[in-house]
Amino acid sequence: MSSPLSNDALLARLEGTGYVRVEPPVLQPAGVFLDVSGEDLRRRMFLTSGPDGREMCLRPDLTIPTARLHLGSTRAGGDAAYCYLGSVFRFRSEASAEFTQAGIEIFGRPDREAADAEVIGCAADAILACGIDDPLVRIGDLALMGAVIEALGLPKAWVRRLMRDATRGGTVEETLDALIASREGAERAAFLAALDGSHPEAAKAVVEDLLAIAGISTVGGRSVSDIAERFLDQARQRAGADLSAEKRAALSRFLSIEGTLSSSIKELRALQRDTGLAMGATLDAFERRADLMSSRGLTSDRVTFAARFGRAVGYYTGFVFEFHSATSLALGPLVGGGRYDTLMTTLGAPQPVPAVGCAFWIERLQEAGR
């Protein structure tokens, strides 16, 4: 095992490969984290209020603060690459609520597969330099999952629900079973039926008015608008049809795919051929990324793909990955990241911005590298 890299040396290494160091503020507007982060992160945030009453939080990660910083910079219209090192804050029952993360983020790079390969390749190089000689690399692709779910011909409300749960670390089969088997009580069913027959904006206004009359402003970190949107989704889902046995079997076959990159690509191609599920350009991009990763030393035998793998963070939209130590699996992921192409418009960008990055859990790296 090699000698572990110090924090300063890690940051210098990232800067030396072309990433510009940034230091986003510790105090951040809470709204965006509540809107786009997964349930796991939302319930562990430290919330407070500013003098103007606006809800604020101690940053629970550094990706969103770095994205906000980029949008406010002169480089917002082009591509940029940043690195950082700093404290983040989350409630944790058995560990300190303050811990350290380093990371890299790439914005505006049009060649998505090349940027993905660069980020995971940089993570692999850094993790080896930190003294982790036995990394296990696990990847998934939410865009590929989305292509399969879209190809099943499900109602749009179902597709949104399935992808939302998959993006946030949920189980696709359980969500699908709930959508198919859901049965509301008479009053709830009548209410949802009325919503489904109304204009979306009018229906949303009705729900918001009812919640306001009840004195409800937020539930579990969700705004009244968020709650109203969930009711509308439920109303739309009532119109969904059952999934045929053939389509259910195709989805199960996709979700069962797990193995090396080369074996997974063969299985995905066979699935597309046998079932007619059109993964098309998304599968082509997956294969190209695998080739680019291999050219950076992440060969097929070093990487495990799992079709059902996701990360419990709500803003990921495509390629996702984690590194673990084979001898210290209990520590959890040492590095985690992925692609998040819709986050920037959520933050106020006038048009979609390709984005990908990863974060290093410094204390875990130090412990695993001992």
TrEMBL record:
InterPro entries: aa-tRNA-synth_II/BPL/LPL, HisRS-like_core, HisRS/HisZ. L-histidine binds at residues 61-63, 90, 101, 105, 311, 315-316. GO terms for biological process: histidyl-tRNA aminoacylation. GO terms for cellular component: cytoplasm. Residues 9-198, 207-365 form the Class II Histidinyl-tRNA synthetase (HisRS)-like catalytic core domain. The keyword Zinc-finger does not apply. It holds the Pfam family tRNA-synt_His. It comes from the Bacteria. Keywords: Glycosyltransferase, Transferase. One of its GO terms (molecular function) is glycosyltransferase activity. This is ATP phosphoribosyltransferase regulatory subunit. The lineage of its organism: Bacteria, Pseudomonadati, Pseudomonadota, Alphaproteobacteria, Rhodobacterales.
